[in-house]
Specification:
single chain, 132 residues, alpha/beta, Rossmann fold, five-stranded parallel beta sheet, 6 helices
């Protein structure tokens, strides 16, 4: 099972270590779900998670990103220029998800086009909770 996580899911996992986002992240860490990413997504994760306002533990962020680099499915996706995004920074997640035939999990469905491969955190949580 392949997944692409919008950055807000990682922020939620760090904020709420017993929440739905943390559960999804644990499935990736445990190797039950494959994280798909590219260099743009890893850069976005790094930039956001290291923001001083969050005050996340640096060693935890570094450990997680190293795991993603080592065990994730790292791709160079095809550009999808004909799809409109209100926020162009969200395009990278959609392009990787489409390239990997993965589910894109986000806390902001309204930022993405209507597509069956995009799910809210709650919907994805319940779908994997029932199958794992």
């Amino acid at each position: 099972m392949n997944v692409v996580l919008d950055t807000n899911i990682l922020v939620s996992a760090f904020w709420s270590p017993n929440g739905k986002a943390a559960y999804v992240l644990k499935q990736i860490i445990d190797g039950k779900i494959n994280l798909c990413c590219d260099c743009r997504i890893l850069s976005e994760y790094r930039e956001v998670l290291f923001r001083p306002k969050f005050q996340f533990d640096l060693w935890q962020i570094n450990s997680l990103l190293e795991l993603f680099e080592k065990d994730g499915i790292f791709v160079v996706p095809e550009p999808l220029p004909d799809i409109f995004f209100a926020d162009e920074s969200d395009r990278i997640f959609f392009e990787v998800a489409k390239f990997c035939n993965a589910t894109l999990v986000t806390g902001n469905l309204k930022h993405f086009p209507q597509d069956n491969s995009i799910m809210s955190l709650t919907d994805y949580f319940f779908s994997i909770y029932q199958t794992l």
